[in-house]
Design a protein that fits this description.
The chain is α/β, with parallel strands linked by helices and 186 residues long. The chain has one domain (2-172): Rossmann fold. It contains 8 helices and 5 strands, in the order E-H-H-E-H-H-E-H-H-E-H-E-H. The protein has helices spanning 8-17, 24-37, 48-63, 72-87, 100-115, 121-137, 150-157, 168-172; strands spanning 2-6, 42-47, 91-94, 141-145, 163-167. The protein has a 5-stranded parallel beta sheet. Strand 4, helix 7 (150-157) and strand 5 (163-167) form a beta-alpha-beta unit. Helix 1 (8-17) crosses helix 2 (24-37), helix 3 (48-63) runs antiparallel to helix 4 (72-87) and helix 5 crosses helix 6 (121-137). It is globular and about 45 Å long.
Length: 186
């Protein structure tokens, strides 16, 4: 069984894809993400941070006045479906390992000072949790995301054998995220 860590951006692409008024990007990603989530050969996990970020981002979408299609019904359905996936153990919630925050600060410092690259704290923490899962199981973990920060983590850590990054924009060929033609270095 392959191990797949689902970060917040992946859950948001899924939730936004549930709305009829969503963007073309999310409509393109939705069937790719559904096929991944329906793949019985995968074991899925996220972190407590994923759930907090997901809830916060869902709520921000609900409050956004310029996107009325992200309404109360969408918010409730998206939130409840993710909670049901956790309750049914389709997605396990991995605990944040001890000293994770020190690891996150070290990753950000190294990305900035040694590589001149951006790295968000929450993406670094997702990687730390996924790396802990890989270490615990002795199996590589795929990080499913639509964020671009994970490549720098692989560059600076040497974790490429333990962590793989699958970017939904690249998998779905959206041309709007990490695969956009004018993408610049961070």
């Amino acid at each position: 069984m392959s191990l797949t860590y689902v970060d917040t951006s992946a859950l948001m692409r899924w939730a936004e894809g549930q709305s009829a008024g969503t963007s073309p990007r999310n409509r393109t990603i939705a069937p790719v993400l559904k096929a991944i989530l329906d793949d019985g050969s995968r074991s899925f996990a996220c972190s407590d941070l994923t759930l907090l970020e997901f809830h916060s981002n869902l709520s921000a979408r609900l409050r956004a006045r310029n996107e009325p299609h992200y309404d109360d019904e969408w918010w409730t359905s998206s939130r409840n479906t993710v909670l049901e996936m956790i309750a049914s153990r389709k997605i396990a919630v991995r605990r944040t390992p001890p000293r994770a925050f020190e690891h996150v600060m070290a990753l950000i410092s190294t990305a900035t000072s040694d590589h001149g690259r951006r790295l968000h704290a929450w993406d670094a923490l997702h990687a730390v949790v996924a790396a802990d899962w890989a270490s615990t199981t002795g199996e590589p973990v795929e990080i499913l995301t639509s964020d671009g920060d994970f490549e720098v983590i692989l560059e600076i850590t040497g974790l490429a054998s333990a962590l793989q990054v699958s970017n939904l924009d690249i998998l779905a060929h959206t041309g709007e995220g990490e695969d956009r033609p004018t993408k610049s270095q961070h």
